[in-house]
Design brief:
Blueprint (H helix, E strand, L loop, with lengths): L1 H23 L6 E3 L6 E3 H17 L4 E4 L13 E9 L1 H6 L5 E8 L2 E9 L4 E6 L4 E3 L2 E2 L12 E3 L19 E3 L4 H10 L4 E4 L3 E2 H13 L3 E3 L14 E2 L2 E4 L1 H10 L2
Parallel strand pairs: 3-4, 10-11, 10-12
Antiparallel strand pairs: 1-2, 4-5, 5-6, 6-7, 7-8, 8-9, 12-16, 13-15, 14-16
Helix pairs in contact: 1-2, 4-5
Length: 259
């Protein structure tokens, strides 16, 4: 099965990415700001990006390529399959010495994710999924939590997601709000069942969430944009309209409460 073969490729590439990134972590890597207030980037991001491109495209030369750290090419829009990667998701955390950064790698076919890996090198946690094959953490199956009530749920998201204007009648839910720098890691923690939901209620780059979307779905959860629409990837502008991920019942409740 092609999805399983692609997943094996992603797993090997993620481990190699971790080997590179760990050499720089907490060792004062060179850092600079990207143009247009697009945030910081480090020499580790670029070395990981170059390795991933060489390894993945070398193995699948007919696949397209979309990465946070590679100039975008519209040629990817004409490909049936493509890689969507974030070499280091949570670069600010990486630079600051916070261990909650990840490598996020996905294969997309026809706008849907077919294979995905999110790897957290510092803790050695590797989340993986292939379409129709379930989701795993270090090869053990994972499943989303059974939480059905939004009140009291553990929800990953920034403070901005809980401003009153995002919620019907300004009724902000009473949740246990948590945070991790990497969006891909937040989604994986929902898939693992350690947290009940995650929210990102602004335009979100595809490379931040493509891998996590499949991992949550294969763990039995639901993922949508902030309006409840299914996520589609390989868009001309590679963004989605926010992300909501949770178990099915809690996801439905979030859909009723968000505006």
């Amino acid at each position: 099965m092609r999805e399983v073969d692609d997943l094996s490729l992603l797993v090997g590439a993620a481990h190699e990415a971790g080997d590179i990134a760990r050499r720089y972590f907490r060792r004062d890597p060179k850092v600079w700001d990207k143009p247009g207030s697009a945030g910081p980037v480090s020499e580790a991001d670029l070395e990981v990006d170059a390795m991933l491109h060489d390894r993945l495209i070398g193995a699948r030369p007919d696949y397209g390529w979309l990465s946070e750290e590679t100039p975008d090419s519209q040629a990817r829009l004409g490909t049936d399959r493509l890689f969507i990667v974030d070499p280091i998701d949570g670069t600010r955390a990486f630079i600051e010495g916070d261990p909650s950064w990840s490598h996020s790698l996905a294969v997309v076919r026809g706008g849907e994710v077919s294979a995905a890996v999110v790897y957290i090198p510092v803790s050695g946690k590797l989340y993986a999924a292939a379409r129709g094959q379930g989701a795993t953490l270090n090869d053990a199956p994972v499943a989303v939590s059974g939480q059905t009530e939004l009140t009291g749920a553990a929800v990953l998201g920034t403070r901005a997601n809980f401003e009153p204007w995002h919620w019907a009648e300004a009724d902000v839910p009473e949740v246990r709000r948590k945070f991790r720098s990497s969006l891909a890691y937040r989604m994986s923690l929902v898939a693992e069942g350690r947290y009940d939901a995650m929210l990102s209620l602004r335009a979100t780059w595809e490379w931040d969430v493509a891998a996590g979307a499949l991992i949550v779905t294969e763990a039995g959860g639901r993922v949508s944009d902030r309006r409840g629409a299914a996520l589609r990837f390989n868009n001309a502008m590679p963004q989605v309209n926010g992300v909501v991920a949770a178990g099915p019942v809690l996801h439905e409740e979030l859909g009723r409460r968000l505006v």
